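Hey, sorry to bother you again with one of my protein questions. I've been puzzling over a protein and I'd love to understand its fold better. Take your time with it, there's no hurry, and the full record follows here:
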Amino acid sequence: MRRHLSLTLILLACALAVAPAAYASWNYATQTTKGSSTASRSATSGCSVRTHYSALRLSCPHGGLAKATYVFQLPSDFTGKPAASLVPAFGPYASVKVVNSTAYVTVKVTGGTYTLRWVNLVYYVK
């Protein structure tokens, strides 16, 4: 058992040593847009989506759905799956869908009010 654990730790250490070398030629990149800079927005059942200065206020006080979509053009050499982060960080989840070199970030609110100031898209380029 002890020998198996030692071998496992050695293999894990080797894997961790190789992983950074594999990503050494990649660069981390990000794009940011204001919350109000949507490609599309929609609201149902008593919800609303409104510009609030340079932010976007998505509100659903009694259920329903408020949705905003953002479009980012990715470079041709991007790699992996881009991820989105929202500012402020608490609140809804952002989903990312990539079609060719275009990333679509969708933010949905189904309860309460959320004021979205910034949308960040992060990815790697070779």
Helices lie at 2-23. Strands lie at 27-34, 40-43, 48-52, 55-60, 66-73, 78-87, 94-99, 102-109, 112-116, 118-125. Residues 26-125 form one domain.
